[in-house]
Amino acid sequence: MARIGFIGLGRMGGPMARNLLKAGHQVVVFDIVQPAVDALVAAGAVAGFSAAAAAKDADVVITMLPAGEQVRDAWLGQGGLSKASRADALLMDCSTIDVATAREVAAATGRPFLDAPVSGGVMGAEAGTLTFMVGGDAAAVERARPVLEAMGKTIVHCGEAGAGQVAKLCNNMMLAATMAVTSEAFVMAERLGLPAQALYDVCSKSTAMSWALNSYCPVPGPVPASPANRDYAPGFTAALMRKDLGLAQQAAKDAGVDAPVGALALALFDRFVEGGGGGKDFSGIITMIRAGQRA
Length: 295
Ligand code: NAD
Prior knowledge:
By secondary structure, the protein is an alpha/beta fold. Helix content is about 50%, strand content about 15%.
């Protein structure tokens, strides 16, 4: 079993670190929020008094932080993880961050470094069923596999450094745009007198089928487990979706790619978040679309 330094014990990192403990790994944890550390110590982890202390002596060092700025600072800043960790340690970041920073950090560590963002949300983190999209050296990915398998059930090696982030941003751009247009269709059907259940019954089995419709339907009823049935309690918040859409547009721009549908999805989620919907599930975008209709 490995000794793992885990930094960032929020809604995702907390349950991920717990699953590493459950799998029998020794986990040394750090977060700037003390209660998050205390909760993990109660579950069997050891508290590091700094990120560097949590990484020292670890076989594997993992970060799960809010955004690129924190990730760069944690790895490359003063007293950063890159210097603090063992020369032969396996290094990885599971946060969702911009592609440029993921590549910069991987190159600057000068060692095998994986970007391994996840999908599956807090429920997936708790259940240990996350999907990991991994960028970096193939041998390092194989070395990481047993550790990732303690936290997830699907591990896909996407390519070189940054490829995991590219996959994550492409996935969420497709998901957001699909959810927005699915919501428009349900509102249109409502206005034209087509019951939501009938629209679902047809489209979930026809060419319009999608995860947004079939598994995460934005109206209550057809899919009992979808957030629509609990007033759009998250799930995956609209604020995080907006963040990922912003990162996707940045990545598209840097690559010289025109992605107008993704840009429109970003504009819609911007408006929803600015209007107070940030804490709602992203499928709650339907409430804004419905409210925006002419009387
Ligand atoms: P969160 O805000 O709940 O957790 C982040 C944690 O990092 C917090 O506990 C915070 O105190 C800690 N932190 C911040 N700066 C730190 C530092 N310098 N050193 C140590 N700890 C620090 O966020 P989350 O929901 O756990 O998300 C983490 C990452 O995973 C984000 O990049 C997010 O986009 C991504 N993600 C989240 C979800 C989700 O459903 N929440 C799903 C997929 C991916």
